[in-house]
Amino acid sequence: MKGFFVTATDTEVGKTVIAGAIAGVLRKQGKNAGVYKPVQSGHVAGHLEGDAARLKALSGVDDPLDHICPFSAEEPLAPILALRRAGKHVTLGHLKHHYTRLKEKYEYMIVEGAGGLAVPYVEDGLVVDAALMFKLPLLIVARPNLGTVNHTLLTIEFAKQRGLQVAGVVLSGYQEETAGIAEQTNPDIIHSYSGVPVIGVIPWITESNQSEYVLSAVEQCIDWNQLRIL
Ligand SMILES: Nc1ncnc2c1ncn2[C@@H]1O[C@H](COP(=O)(O)OP(=O)(O)O)[C@@H](O)[C@H]1O
Ligand SMILES: [Mg+2]
Fold this sequence. Notes:
The chain is an alpha/beta fold. It contains 9 helices and 10 strands. The chain has a single domain, classed as P-loop containing nucleotide triphosphate hydrolases (Rossmann fold, 3-Layer(aba) Sandwich).
């Protein structure tokens, strides 16, 4: 299977935006790409502001929301907690079972995790365990500003320690007007300390609720040649 497991250094960093837009750009290029959000907390799968609906809108796939996201809970808590409190006991095996349905349909899968790699995810694993199970290389979304080097290097180190292949880092939300020395130097510093390339710096998109603007920014700002797995 080709594709990526998209994680981030934290929650609310840009995983959904980047994952959905990568799938959307691939589909625009004529590639058969699907999206999967195994577990979503904060909104039930059918909610229009939830990740499943946003992934669907950005990518343009026609799968029902409960196929894109089979396990969801309303409370904005760590997935394992939100699921348990909703009376759901989900395991890695469940996530794999629902992945199979999409895997058969698509040539590329873009899978979005939740929060970061060490987030308690399901009964028998953290997000990192799901990433390993899906056997997809990791794409790490990080913030562009001061503090991101620490969070990104920690994420890369943990991923490598657990045997994941790290394809690259994408920085999301770069703001030209306020960017200083940290924002300008962070991509090279991350690369030099980790050996992992920063394959894109995505600007802050004011019209982020309009898919065409998001897709166009991601298409222009990601170095697609560096995403060699595709
Ligand atoms: N490059 C960007 N430009 C504009 N808004 C962004 C960008 N990246 C992320 N956002 C916004 O930041 C918030 C968090 O992004 P999201 O993709 O939902 O993060 P995550 O999936 O990591 O929790 C959302 O409101 C999203 O629209
Ligand atoms: Mg998300």
